[in-house]
Amino acid sequence: xxxxxxxxxxxxxxxxxxxxxxxxxxxxxxxxxxxxxxxxxxxxxxxxxxxxxxxxxxxxxxxxxxxxxxxxxxxxxxxxxxxxxxxxxxxxxxxxxxxx
Length: 100
Known about the structure:
The chain is of the alpha+beta class. It has one domain: Alpha-Beta Plaits (2-Layer Sandwich), CATH 3.30.70.100. 25% of the residues lie in helices and 35% in strands. The chain contains three helices and four strands, in the order E-H-E-E-H-H-E. Strands 2-3-1-4 form a four-stranded antiparallel beta sheet. The protein starts with a strand and ends with a strand. InterPro entries: ABM_dom, Dimeric_a/b-barrel, Heme-degrading_MO. This is Antibiotic biosynthesis monooxygenase family protein. GO terms for molecular function: monooxygenase activity. Keywords: Monooxygenase, Oxidoreductase.
């Protein structure tokens, strides 16, 4: 299995707006072979930001890579730039292969 995570630093006070964007967006993940599950995680807050992470699980790294090159990926991320007032910087990607 492969786990793909993006970390987001969200402007204080904009957490509910960020969550709403994710609740209402179409991901198209159900169209992609190898997709297993998705979660949006909320972490700690400080004076500068609230940490969130998107967490998707895939059957393999190759399945995830195919997703990133797919039409479904382009459709899911087509309006990502429209919410710039919520984010502090770009998301930080982390990928993990399951070893146990």
